C-alpha cells in the first residue's frame, strides 16, 4: 500500500497534474469558495436584485400566464428603449403576451428553482450559479490538462478568480453562467472525440449542441462549425463518422424540437428559434451607432399596430421597415456601424465607455485588459504553428482551435447585430483564458518540474495506478 508521501508526490508531479482526479476536485473547490465568498459580500437581499427577461418569464409561468412577458415590458423592449422624445399613445400596460425573445433553457431552470424554493429566491439562484461556474472552470481544466497541464491549471484558476465571471455569476439572474458551462463542455467533447470517439460521445455532442442553441442562439454557428470539426477529429472510417454526425444532428433536433413546435403553435411559423431579430438589430443601431433608422413617429405607429399582432408579427414588421431603409443606409452601416459593433465587443460597450470609477476599473476593465494582453501574446505563436503544421495543430490544439472558432463566430454575429451588453463578451473571455494557458504554459511547466516536483518525474512511470478523471 502506498504511503501518503508517495501519493502526494505523484499528485504533485506533472503526470499527476495531468491525470489525478484530486486536481479536478481542488480546482472545483477553490472556484466554489471564491464564488461563495463573493456571494456573501455582494448579496443584500432578493429585493435588491435587478432581474430581466428570463426571470420575468419564469414568474409569469408560475402565475399561470405561460411563457410570456408583460405588455409593459413588451412596450419598453420593442419600442420605448429606442425612443428619445416621442411617447407611446395610451399604451397597454396590463396583461401578458406570448414571447420567444429568450430561449427556454435558463428560463425553465429559473421556473423550477422559483417553484421549489419560492418566487424571486435569488439567493438559491446564485448558489446554483456558483456551482455551475465552479463546474465550468473544472471542465476547462480537464479539457486542457492533457496537452498542457500547468497551463490548464493557470487558465482554470484564473477563470475561477476572474472578477467579471465571479461578480456576474453571483449578482445577475441571467443565462451566461450556464452558457459558459455548455461552451466548456463542447470543448471537452471535441477532445474526447479526438481521443476516444464513440456513439455515446456523439449523442452527448448533439444534446449539448441543442442545449447551447436553446440557451443562446448566437452559439448556432459555433456549434455547427464544431460539429464539422468533430467529424474531422474522429479517427474512424468516413462512413462511421458521417453516421455519427447525422446521429448528433438528429439528437440536437430532438432537443430543439419542443421549442420549435411550441413556437409553431403560438406564432404559426416554422422554424422559429428567436422572435426578436429585428428588435436586436434596431437595438444595435440605437446603442451602437447613430440611432434607429426608423423614425420615432413610425415606431409609435408600429407599436399601435402591433397590439393586435403576435410578438413575431411585430418583429417581422420591424424587419420589413429596416430592410426597406437598408439601401439608403448601407454605406453608413458597413463603414461605421459594423466596425463600431466589433469595437464594442472587444473593447467596451457604449454605456461603460467613459466609466472610470474604481469599482468598474477594478472589477471589469483592468482584469479584461490583463486577460486580453496575456492572450494576445500567444496569438502569433499559435498562428505560426497553424501555418507551418496545420494538420498537427488542428489535432493537438483542439481547445485552442475551438476557442478561436468561438471568438470568430461571436465577432461576426455581434458585428452584425451590435454588442450593447457587456455580458455578450463573457464567452469570448472564457476563450481568451485558453490562449493565456498557451502564453503561460511553457514557463509554468518548467517551474513546476523544477520547484514543485523536482523528484516526482522519476515516479511518473511507477506501476501503481494514478486515478484518472
- What is the count of DSSP helices, taking H or I runs of 4+ residues? 21
The structure class reads: mainly alpha
Spans with pLDDT under 50 lasting ≥5 residues? 1-8, 456-469
Which descriptor suits the 3D outline? globular
Computed Rg: 24 Å
Biggest sheet: strands, sense, closure? 2 strands, antiparallel
Q: Order of strands in the sheet with the most strands?
A: 1-2
Chain-averaged pLDDT:
92
- Helicity level: over 70%
Tell me what portion of residues adopts beta-strand conformation: under 5%
- H-E order: HHHHEHEHHHHHHHHHHHHHHHH
Note the gap between the termini: 21 Å
Secondary structure tally: strands: 2
Descriptive overview:
The protein has 469 residues and is mainly α. The protein has 21 helices and 2 strands. The radius of gyration is 24 Å and the shape is globular. Mean pLDDT is 92; it is low at 1-8 and 456-469.
What tags apply to this protein structure?
mainly alpha; globular; disordered C terminus; 1% strand; 469 residues; two-stranded antiparallel sheet; 2 strands; disordered N terminus; single chain
Concise structural overview:
72% of the residues lie in helices and 1% in strands. It has helices at residues 4-12, 14-19, 21-42, 53-62, 71-78, 104-117, 122-145, 149-161, 163-169, 176-195, 199-215, 220-233, 238-267, 277-288, 296-306, 311-346, 358-376, 379-388, 390-396, 398-417, 426-452, and strands at 68-70, 96-98. It starts with a helix and ends in a 17-residue tail after the last helix.
Amino acid at each position: 500500500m502506498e504511503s501518503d508521501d508517495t501519493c502526494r508526490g505523484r499528485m504533485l508531479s506533472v503526470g499527476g497534474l495531468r491525470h489525478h482526479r484530486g486536481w479536478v476536485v481542488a480546482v472545483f473547490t477553490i472556484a466554489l469558495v471564491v464564488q461563495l465568498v463573493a456571494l456573501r459580500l455582494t448579496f443584500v437581499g432578493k429585493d435588491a436584485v435587478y432581474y430581466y427577461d428570463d426571470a420575468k418569464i419564469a414568474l409569469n409561468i408560475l402565475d399561470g400566464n405561460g411563457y410570456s412577458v408583460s405588455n409593459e415590458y413588451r412596450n419598453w423592449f420593442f419600442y420605448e428603449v429606442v425612443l428619445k422624445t416621442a411617447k407611446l399613445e395610451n399604451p397597454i400596460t396590463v396583461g401578458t403576451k406570448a414571447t420567444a425573445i429568450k430561449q427556454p433553457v435558463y428560463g425553465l431552470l429559473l421556473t423550477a428553482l422559483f417553484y421549489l424554493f419560492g418566487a424571486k429566491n435569488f439567493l438559491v439562484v446564485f448558489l446554483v450559479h456558483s456551482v455551475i461556474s465552479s463546474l465550468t472552470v473544472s471542465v476547462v481544466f480537464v479539457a486542457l490538462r492533457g496537452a498542457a497541464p500547468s497551463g490548464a491549471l493557470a487558465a482554470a484558476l484564473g477563470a475561477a478568480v476572474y472578477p467579471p465571471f465571479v461578480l456576474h455569476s453571483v449578482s445577475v439572474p441571467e443565462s451566461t453562467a450556464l452558457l459558459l458551462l455548455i461552451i466548456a463542455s463542447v470543448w471537452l467533447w471535441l477532445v474526447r472525440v479526438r481521443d476516444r470517439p464513440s456513439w455515446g460521445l456523439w449523442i452527448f455532442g448533439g444534446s449539448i449542441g441543442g442545449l447551447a442553441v436553446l440557451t443562446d442562439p448566437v452559439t448556432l454557428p459555433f456549434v455547427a462549425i464544431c460539429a464539422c470539426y468533430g467529424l474531422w477529429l474522429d479517427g474512424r472510417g468516413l462512413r462511421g463518422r458521417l453516421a455519427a454526425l447525422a446521429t448528433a444532428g438528429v439528437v440536437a433536433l430532438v432537443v430543439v424540437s419542443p421549442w420549435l413546435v411550441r413556437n409553431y403553435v403560438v406564432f404559426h411559423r416554422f422554424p422559429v428559434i428567436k422572435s426578436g431579430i429585428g428588435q436586436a438589430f434596431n437595438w444595435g443601431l440605437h446603442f451602437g451607432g447613430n440611432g434607429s433608422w426608423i423614425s420615432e413617429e413610425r415606431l409609435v405607429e408600429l407599436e399601435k399596430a402591433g397590439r393586435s399582432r403576435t410578438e413575431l408579427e411585430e418583429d417581422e414588421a420591424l424587419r420589413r421597415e429596416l430592410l426597406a431603409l437598408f439601401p439608403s443606409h448601407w454605406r453608413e452601416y458597413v463603414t461605421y456601424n459594423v466596425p463600431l459593433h466589433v469595437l464594442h465587443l472587444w473593447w467596451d460597450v457604449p454605456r461603460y465607455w467613459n466609466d472610470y470609477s474604481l469599482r468598474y476599473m477594478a472589477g471589469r476593465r483592468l482584469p479584461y485588459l490583463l486577460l486580453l494582453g496575456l492572450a494576445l501574446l500567444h496569438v502569433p505563436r499559435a498562428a505560426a504553428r497553424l501555418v507551418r503544421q496545420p494538420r498537427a495543430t488542428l489535432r493537438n490544439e483542439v481547445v485552442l482551435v475551438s476557442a478561436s472558432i468561438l471568438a470568430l463566430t461571436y465577432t461576426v454575429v455581434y458585428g452584425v447585430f451590435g454588442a450593447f451588453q457587456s455580458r455578450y463578451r463573457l464567452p469570448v473571455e472564457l476563450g481568451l483564458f485558453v490562449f493565456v494557458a498557451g502564453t503561460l504554459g511553457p514557463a509554468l511547466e518548467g517551474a513546476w518540474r523544477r520547484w514543485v516536483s523536482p523528484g516526482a518525474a522519476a515516479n511518473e512511470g511507477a506501476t501503481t495506478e494514478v486515478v484518472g478523471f
